[in-house]
Amino acid sequence: MVLPRWVWDYIRIVMENGSYAEVRGWLRDAVAPRHSIRPSVSEATSPCPTKRDAYLRRVAKASISSSDSLTFGRLVHEVFLAPLRLSFTSLSELDSLFNKVIGDYGELGARYKGALYEVFMKSVGLALQAREEGVPISVEPLIPGALIGFSDFIRPDLIVGFIPVEVVSSPPSGDDSSMGRKDLAVAAYALAVEAWVGHPIDIGIVLHITVNGGAKFVWRVIKVDDALRRTVLDLRDTVARIIEHGDDPGVAGNCPRSCPFYGVCHG
Ligand code: SF4
What we know:
The chain is α+β, with helices and mostly antiparallel strands. The protein is built from 11 helices and 7 strands.
């Protein structure tokens, strides 16, 4: 079923209280962008408080340095998504699949091999349950984003049924802004699916995967309410305005050290 049983139960309880979202993806006036530039979801929901990262990347054409934390995040994503992405036919295929995924990341993959294997096997379990129960899963599906003023295509990590799922390699109790960012990304995906298929999406999921001291999964059910919807659409317009006018919004006062532009903004 991909999502644990208690998550489905929790979703049912949340939905029993009704849905009051008025900003729906299929309502042209509600989602109409104010600028012609259409940012990506990651640009609109980036951790940069002033969105200077969009200015640096799209206007100043600054090059970024890949950090260990970004690479590690990609590795955790790949390890989790690999069993869901492939329709493996025998369990013996799994070990070679795992070794291939972590092998692409060299020393980083080898260093965390034990914990990553736990992540992988948890994902295998979820994939087998989903297969058994016939739950439709799309891994990194391409969803049209232009209908809601985002880039041509946007790509959530997973769509389970109609529920967008985002995977993040940090704990929920860590960086609050990081938590909020993924909630906003889920709202953007919900709006895009609504615009695409005309079906209301009131729930999204953020899955936090951590590997320190063993693999740990924390599932958060996000109610995609109007506040989240309006905020992500406002961020879309903020980023679009910066790119369209070429205005440097300035260095933020509280930059995360993990920002790939940290060296550019802080010398
Ligand atoms: S260093 Fe700060 S201001 Fe510069 S892009 Fe990163 S978060 Fe934004």
